[in-house]
């Protein structure tokens, strides 16, 4: 029966995703390795897009209407050199955010696998 429950529901739904995204962006914006990618970004809008994207990606309601990962990040790859080291830093913050929220390790692994599945598109490969 639990196999039918989405990761989104297992994480705690909208409130949990919202809390995770807020904490995640605090970590990202304070990280000198990657915060320059957000210099010209409206963080409130970015966080709203991220919440919608993660909700969809984790099996919740699909209200995401942003660009696909490749198109959304292409300018960062071309102009600012977004690469694997930056993606790894983002993954590090995703994991630490979920651990901070006391998410069980198996759910963190599932969330990380979903995020990892976007690496090639994000890095425009």
TrEMBL record:
Heme binds at residue 73. Binds 1 heme group per subunit. Keywords: Heme, Iron, Metal-binding, Oxygen transport, Transport. Its cofactor is heme. It comes from the Bacteria. InterPro entries: Globin-like_sf (IPR009050), Globin/Proto (IPR012292), Globin_bac-like_CS (IPR019795), Hemoglobin_trunc (IPR001486), Hemoglobin_trunc_I (IPR016339). GO terms for molecular function: heme binding; metal ion binding; oxygen binding; oxygen carrier activity. Belongs to the truncated hemoglobin family. Group I subfamily. This is Group 1 truncated hemoglobin. It comes from Methylomonas koyamae.
